[in-house]
TrEMBL record, chain A:
SUPFAM superfamilies in UniProt: Thiamin diphosphate-binding fold (THDP-binding), TK C-terminal domain-like
Entry protein name: Transketolase
Limits of the Transketolase-like pyrimidine-binding domain: 37-201
One Pfam family cited in the UniProt record for this chain: Transketolase_C
InterPro entries named among the record's database cross-references: PDH/Transketolase (IPR051157), THDP-binding (IPR029061), Transketo_C/PFOR_II (IPR009014), Transketolase-like_Pyr-bd (IPR005475), Transketolase_C (IPR033248)
Organism: Brevibacterium sediminis
From TrEMBL, chain B:
Taxonomic placement: Bacteria, Bacillati, Actinomycetota, Actinomycetes, Micrococcales
Organism: Brevibacterium sediminis
Keywords: Thiamine pyrophosphate
A Pfam family the protein falls into: Transketolase_N
Descriptive protein name: Transketolase
UniProt feature, compositional bias: Basic and acidic residues: 293-309
Region of interest (Disordered), residue spans: 282-309
SUPFAM superfamilies documented for this protein: Thiamin diphosphate-binding fold (THDP-binding) (SSF52518)
Family note: Belongs to the transketolase family.
Cofactor(s) listed in the protein's UniProt record: thiamine diphosphate
Gene3D superfamilies the record matches: 3.40.50.970
Keyword Nucleus appears in the UniProt entry: no
């Protein structure tokens, strides 16, 4: 048992300072900033609309309905909701069974528990038989300062190697609400990294529409191309506005579907002569950056790509703003990284 | 409320000492929780009596050497009870009192979820539930191989009874006769989505553990005497079986308005309520102490009378 050196080991050597420090937020903090346009529980709302029309839809959770916005569905359709208790393997097993009987289950837990604990069930009971099970999982990547047990920094790396599975990393409420009917219509398993609570609404302003399997150019720019997914698209768009003031013209290509990956669109945008970066709320191993590199290698395109993403480390516990800065995901740090590469 | 015990008589002084420790652990927990304004405060208050029985009585530990080879291993499978364990470790002199105020702040040794990588005295990194008992098995095996007399305690929750890993480990412990394990299940009838019994009931819990081959006890987890007596008995028992104590606890115990408030997994307390919380805690401890004094007085007079008769 070794204790992280920076936290000290000796008893009584606390070095307690009086200066006010940032505090780790609650388990599930609202991502929307004060005054920002936002939607409350977009997943729950979209599911209600869909479930009204389609009685194949059922919901299940492993003691986290309230923390994944599935409680909205539970409260509206109590007899179509199954509380599994804190048992993630039993959750995904039951979702598989329901799908085998012709229902369309939405199963929710945190990303870490679906991918780490219940992976075998996800792989063999859901993905292999190619069932229409939709896993909607909260706390993707770094969205809590709670520490490694709840930070799903490598969920996409775990899942990308699974045949049949569709992986979605939405940016905002627009993405989530438009994705739900497409997840239902898609006849196969899906894993979506949901954002819950008050979720920012960003992309509708750009005339954007979510299309499963498609990357979309949110804004064009002549100097830099950032390929992004998840909440990093919002940060990339903010960074682009800042860089615009310096006369740096940044394009943002949003690729919310990580598998199947929209290689055509990515290759088309990469072909233009610009500085290329990827931005993802995930370890730089096995996620968006690797997906882009993979497509470039297959096509024989030799271009340098700079990854913005989480380091190959177990992350610290702490306040989210501190951690976003520490690991280079904040708007300010994106701006810094782009400037550093110019 | 006192249970009858075959092997144990506990002196009133010992009970009072543990009760006082429980009171200070509750005070500590409130100090920490106030830093964040919210958190797993209901659990900490509910579980303080058990933690006091452990950290002020049962555990062999050395606060100046948290990794002392001869120590009892106390695993916090319930990593989200972090503020409770820090409160107990401060009571056990592992940390200075002032450090409580660093709870959940950047760079603190007291993160929101208890992790061995951050905090001396914390044996495992919890947070993902259902890990404690499997690890306890390995430690208990290792200690037996080393001919150690140390005991492995594993603190788990009613929610963790949902995890398959808990029951896999329960079977392993019984098969391998890991008699040096004492598991403590905090039955507070609460989980993230609601009341354990209505959400997904695991009753009958006692019978489940018994049928898995465990020496099983259940008692009121806010009755210090009952908790102590059971822990002593389970430790002293000569049986080739792992042991489990299921404790029924009350969320928010000791702070009247929190005991009465809607029971929640994650409680929010308004800024102006913290001083009231400390005040109510004082009052309930004063009431409890008065009761103890009365009892002791009665006990003394009856034994005196008995002596004369
Ligand atoms: C494997 C796992 N699944 C889900 C969670 C999320 N979670 C944290 S606490 C909790 C409730 C578990 O029940 P219990 O420990 O009895 O809750 P409490 O008494 O603290 O309310 C859940 C589901 C987790 N930490 N680990
Ligand atoms: Mg509980």
């Amino acid at each position: 048992m070794s204790v992280k050196s920076e936290h000290g080991t000796a008893i009584g050597s606390a070095g307690v300072s009086t200066e006010k420090k940032l505090v780790s937020g609650a388990m599930s903090v609202d991502l929307a900033k004060e005054g920002q346009r936002a939607v409350q529980a977009p997943l729950g709302q979209a599911l209600l609309t869909a479930a009204d029309r389609d009685d194949r839809i059922v919901g299940l959770s492993a003691d986290l309905a309230k923390y994944t916005d599935l409680h909205v569905f539970r409260d509206a359709f109590p007899d179509r909701f199954y509380q599994i208790g804190m048992a993630e393997q039993a959750l995904l097993g039951a979702a598989a069974g329901l799908a085998m009987e012709g229902f369309v289950p939405f199963a929710s837990t945190y990303s870490v528990f679906a991918t780490r604990r219940a992976y075998d069930w996800l792989a063999l009971d859901i993905a292999e038989p190619n069932l229409n099970v939709n896993m909607v999982c909260a706390l993707p990547g770094l969205t809590t300062g709670y520490g490694p047990s709840h930070q799903a920094t490598e969920d996409i790396a775990i899942l990308r190697g699974l045949p049949n599975l569709t992986i979605v990393d939405p940016c905002d409420a627009t993405d989530i609400m438009q994705a739900v009917p497409q997840l239902i219509a898609h006849d196969g398993p899906t894993y979506t990294r949901i954002l819950r609570g008050r979720v920012p609404q960003v992309l509708d302003e750009y005339g954007y529409e979510f299309e499963l399997g498609k990357a979309k150019l949110i804004r064009d720019g002549a100097d830099v191309l950032i390929i992004s997914s998840g909440l990093m698209t919002e940060n990339a768009l903010e960074a682009a506005k800042v860089l615009q003031q310096d006369g740096v013209d940044v394009a943002v290509l949003h690729s919310p579907t990580l598998k199947p990956f929209d290689s055509e669109m990515v290759l088309k945008e990469v072909a233009r002569d610009r500085l290329i970066l990827t931005a993802e709320n995930h370890t730089v191993i096995g996620g968006l950056f690797d997906s882009v590199a993979h497509e470039l290698a297959l096509e024989g395109v030799t271009k340098q790509v700079t990854p913005i993403g989480l380091p190959d480390e177990f992350l610290d516990a702490g306040a989210l703003p501190t951690l976003y800065d520490r690991y280079g995901l904040s708007v300010a740090k994106i701006v810094e990284t782009v400037r550093g590469r110019m | 409320m006192t249970t009858e015990f075959r092997h144990t008589t506990i002196s009133p002084e010992r009970i009072v000492r543990v009760r006082e420790a429980a009171f200070r652990i509750r005070q500590n927990a409130l100090v920490e929780a106030e830093v964040q304004g919210q958190g797993y405060i209901g659990q900490a208050l509910g579980f303080s009596d058990v933690l006091a029985a452990l950290y002020a009585d049962q555990l062999n530990l050395d606060p100046t050497d948290p990794e002392w080879e001869g120590r009892d291993r106390c695993l916090l499978s319930i990593g989200h009870y972090a503020l409770a364990i820090y409160a107990a470790l401060v009571e056990a002199k592992f940390f200075p009192q002032e450090e409580l105020k660093t709870y959940a702040t950047d760079g603190s040794r007291f993160p929101m979820s208890a992790m061995s990588t951050y905090t001396p005295g914390v044996e495992i990194s919890g947070g993902s539930l259902g890990h404690g008992l499997p690890i306890a098995n390995g430690m208990a095996m290792g200690l037996k191989r080393k001919n150690s007399t140390a005991t492995v305690y594993n603190l788990l929750s009613d929610g963790e009874l949902g995890e398959g890993s808990t029951w896999e480990a329960a079977a392993v412990a019984a098969h391998h006769e890991l008699s040096n394990i004492i598991a403590i299940v905090d039955f507070n009838d609460q989980q993230a989505d609601g009341k354990s019994t209505t959400m997904l009931s695991m009753e009958p819990i006692t019978e489940k553990w018994e049928s898995f081959g465990w020496e099983t006890r259940r008692c009121d987890g806010n009755d210090v005497e009952a908790v102590l007596a059971n822990l002593i008995e389970l430790r002293e028992l000569e049986a080739p079986r792992p042991r489990v104590l299921i404790v029924n606890t009350r969320l928010g115990k000791g702070v009247d308005f929190l005991e009465k408030r809607e029971k929640l997994h994650f409680m929010r307390v308004a800024e102006e309520e913290w001083s009231l919380a400390q005040k109510q805690l004082h009052n309930s401890f004063a009431d409890e102490s008065a009761e103890t004094d009365e009892l002791r007085e009665k006990e003394r007079s009856t034994t005196e009378d008995g002596g004369r008769a």
